[in-house]
Design a protein that fits this description.
Elements lengths: L1 H7 L1 H20 L4 H25 L9 H8 L9 H23 L14
Helix pairs in contact: 1-2, 2-3, 2-5
Subcellular location: Membrane
Membrane topology: Multi-pass membrane protein
Keywords: Membrane, Transmembrane, Transmembrane helix, Transport
Length: 121
């Protein structure tokens, strides 16, 4: 995975993986049976497996860590819009991961030599 990140650049690679993982997580909140969630979990694992080496490679921190109080709050959204609380957990975390991934396309610097100059520093 690091060779792919090196080839296309960590900014695009990590942004793509994060957005893709977020979309899969949203899908996990909308499944109808255990077979669908199992298939999506396998796909999510593939994206997560690519994110860690790229994050270590580019020295970036994983910004999608879970916060216990947020998960608890999402589970209290039982039957809102006809979805169980556990579904809202996947939907909201997935949408958040998509947003963070999209910011990564802009904010992550591919390589130190490609860094953008900062004003006033």
């Amino acid at each position: 995975m690091t060779s792919i990140a090196r080839e296309i650049g960590p900014r695009i690679f990590m942004g793509f993986i994060t957005v893709s993982a977020g979309l899969v997580m949203v899908g996990m909140g909308l499944v109808n049976n255990w077979k669908e969630i199992a298939a999506l979990r396998v796909i999510l694992s593939l994206f997560e497996a690519g994110l860690f080496p790229a994050a270590v490679f580019s020295s970036a921190a994983d910004m999608s860590s879970k916060v216990d109080w947020m998960v608890y709050g999402l589970e209290q959204m039982e039957q809102l819009q006809g979805h169980n609380g556990w579904r809202w957990n996947f939907i909201i975390e997935g949408v958040s991961a998509v947003a963070v991934g999209q910011m990564g396309f802009v904010l992550i610097v591919d390589f130190p030599e490609d860094g953008r100059p900062h004003d006033g520093s």
